[in-house]
Specification:
transmembrane; 2 domains; two-stranded antiparallel sheet; disordered N terminus; transferase; alpha+beta; about 350 residues; 8 helices; five-stranded mixed sheet; Heat Shock Protein 90
């Protein structure tokens, strides 16, 4: 049965199993000493008061006072709680006994009896901590299983998501070989597009990529953007870095993308773009300068502001980011540390 399978039992089912087991053990233990009805009623009362002690501690006293560092108040309230438990249980047991079972020999609720019940309740109170640990274990176990299930599902979704990109890569390769015979320039553009797609799938999710990998992506992007523009662009891309350091991916893309979105006039023959990537000591400087396109409704996207937020997360205050427009040219500049 699934109900008896530990992997299928949740915390609620576990608690019902425990209290049912406690009641049945007590019931069959006292059955030879009394009638079935008497044994059933008094063991039901005992189980109920055991639950009051345990849940009163783990759900109210312990989290509200002990865990909030009010230990003195916690101890005082525990003593009051146990005395109240002893009085309530003593009077209820005597009332039930005198009303239904002890007509000929009624019993009285004495101070010593209340004290005895309160002291005996101390053992149940101590067991409440074990009960609390058991509940925490089941809760943690359930969370662990849910996390593993989510991880497995995420891995499955990742595998599914990789099917389409690799299918596209293979298809682009086939198209490339077909185009290479008839139109070598078109084949070269297809190859650049395939490289860009491979970068998005394989490299962009990484924490860091090599500078050369990032530059290769930018160059592919620039060449593909050029085919959308009617006239030639005077574009100069300067690269000067000593070592192929690793940097977070897609940092330079915002500047270059903004050039083709907002800085190119597709009807003009005077578009000029200067891009430079320079290493100065332990810093990397990326700068773009482009002629400003003449547009009546020029819009400014949120890319620069998002890049600034990303720099703040990556480098705290250890970076520079500036943009500005002057004399018909727009400049974007950032400086970041490298390791």
């Amino acid at each position: 049965m699934d109900f008896l399978n530990p992997k299928k039992v949740n915390t609620t089912q576990f608690q019902w199993l425990v209290w049912t087991a406690i009641f049945l053990i007590s019931f069959f233990s006292t059955l030879p000493l009394s009638t079935i009805g008497q044994s059933f009623v008094f063991n039901l009362i005992n189980t109920l008061f055991y639950a009051i002690i345990i849940y009163g501690n783990i759900n109210w006293l312990f989290p509200r006072f002990y865990e909030r560092n009010q230990k003195t108040i916690y101890v005082v309230l525990v003593i009051v709680f146990l005395i109240g438990y002893g009085a309530a249980k003593g009077y209820l047991v005597n009332y039930v006994y005198n009303t239904f079972f002890g007509h000929d020999m009624p019993e009285k609720t004495t101070f010593l009896r209340v004290l005895y019940i309160s002291i005996s309740g101390l053992l149940i109170f101590l067991l409440s901590f074990i009960f609390r640990i058991a509940l925490a274990y089941f809760g943690l176990k359930k969370q662990t299983e849910e996390i593993l299930l989510q991880k497995t599902q995420a891995e499955l979704n990742l595998l599914k998501s990789q099917v389409q990109p690799h299918f596209l890569f293979n298809t682009l390769n086939n198209i490339y070989y077909e185009a290479y015979i008839e139109a070598p320039r078109t084949a070269g553009l297809i190859e650049r597009l395939a490289d860009m797609m491979r970068y998005f799938v394989d490299d962009s999710p990484k924490a860091k990529v090599f500078i050369s990998t990032e530059l290769n992506f930018l160059e592919n992007y620039i060449e593909l953007e050029k085919i959308r523009i009617r006239h030639q662009i005077a574009l100069n891309f300067t690269k000067d870095y000593a070592e192929d350091y690793q940097i977070p991916p897609m940092l330079m893309m915002t500047f270059v993308e903004n050039i083709f979105k907002h800085g190119i006039d597709k009807t003009s023959t005077n578009n000029r773009v200067d891009i430079s990537l320079l290493q100065e000591g332990d810093t990397l400087i990326f700068k773009t300068i482009n002629s400003v396109a003449t547009k009546t409704n020029r819009t400014v996207g949120s890319g620069i502001e998002n890049l600034r937020k990303r720099f703040a997360i990556l480098y705290n205050d250890n970076f520079e980011l500036r943009t500005g427009e002057a004399e018909g040219y727009f400049m974007a500049y950032f400086k970041i540390p490298i390791q």
